[in-house]
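pls design
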């Protein structure tokens, strides 16, 4: 196979960050080589750098980058040559596709050893990414690749939106107005919710939440006055107390979907409060293929627009500055991107 010289951000181990030249091989059978256009940076990437991601879900050294968009540069044997030149995004979980969960469509629950782009396999903080072609989702030729870099978090929250089963007329609350929460607001509003209320302590996100389809944004303290008044509550914060707030907001017999993973395991829900409220509870981990299809279709038809969420962008060489922006975001930095 031929090789191409390229650059990649690499985390050799916790607390260490470097930009290194790499050799990019031509795609093998079933693979595609993608020229990366944009790559997102998020809290899980900070966990990689700080060494706080659980050991089974990372393999050092690693090139991060599970949120990305790009254009297919070349295709390996057995891959449709028509993919070359097409704008794409790609699923992260490299599931076996043959175990019972995969057969059911729960590709994020694959029984094989965990393997995900940007965590155990090389990610997109680089110029070129080699990836199994079966994971690619083709976008319209005129797609905004800058906005499309947010389709990975959009797919994650799309899984939660599908699990929520919102029907026209439902009153919905979304706890958390970060990238996940605001993308969720868009999808749930489009599903026909009568009202979507965003809950976040950052009041500067109000105008953006309204632009995404929320009727209002309120603080967690203000939300307490709305306790028990929502048919559906989607928790997309992962912050301490977010799940407990969600259970207080949902009506008895309502539906609640959890997506956040709090760092403090003591911040848990009690069985008593769940049973007495007769809440229908779902938890979502990652983005299975069905959620990707939902998110990509919503984006391709204009129902989902991640563009307003993009804040500052940084060159690959400025990755340290990008991490600093992630740690100290201003109102424009719902999502920070790298541009190889």
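designed seq:
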């Amino acid at each position: 196979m031929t090789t191409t010289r390229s650059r990649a951000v690499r985390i050799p181990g916790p607390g260490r960050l470097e930009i290194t030249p790499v050799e990019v091989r031509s795609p093998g059978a079933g693979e595609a080589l993608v020229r990366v256009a944009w790559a997102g940076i998020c809290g899980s990437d900070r966990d990689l750098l700080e060494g706080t991601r659980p050991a089974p879900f990372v393999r050092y050294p690693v090139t991060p980058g599970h949120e990305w968009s790009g254009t297919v540069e070349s295709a390996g044997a057995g891959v449709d040559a028509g993919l070359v030149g097409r704008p794409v995004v790609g699923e992260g979980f490299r599931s076996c596709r043959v175990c019972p969960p995969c057969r059911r469509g729960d590709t994020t629950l694959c029984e094989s050893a965990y393997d995900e782009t940007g965590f155990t396999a090389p990610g997109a903080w680089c110029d070129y990414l080699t990836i199994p072609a079966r994971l690619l989702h083709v976008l319209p030729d005129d797609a905004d690749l800058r906005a499309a870099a947010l389709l990975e978090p959009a797919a994650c929250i799309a899984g939660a939106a599908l699990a929520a089963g919102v029907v026209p007329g439902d009153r919905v609350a979304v706890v958390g107005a970060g990238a996940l929460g605001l993308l969720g607001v868009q999808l749930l509003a489009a599903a026909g919710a009568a009202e979507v209320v965003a809950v976040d302590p950052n009041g500067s996100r109000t105008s953006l939440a309204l632009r995404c389809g929320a009727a209002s944004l309120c603080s967690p303290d203000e939300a307490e006055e709305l306790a028990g008044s929502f048919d559906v509550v989607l928790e997309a914060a992962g912050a301490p107390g977010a799940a407990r707030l969600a259970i207080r907001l949902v009506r008895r017999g309502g539906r609640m979907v959890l997506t956040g993973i709090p760092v403090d395991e003591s911040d848990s829900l009690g069985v008593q409060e769940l049973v007495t409220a007769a809440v229908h509870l779902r938890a979502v981990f990652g983005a299975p293929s069905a959620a990707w299809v939902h998110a990509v279709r919503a984006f391709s038809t204009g129902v989902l627009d991640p563009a307003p969420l993009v804040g500052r962008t940084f060159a690959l060489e400025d990755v340290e500055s990008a991490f600093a922006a992630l740690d100290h975001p201003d109102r424009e930095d719902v999502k920070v991107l790298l541009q190889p």
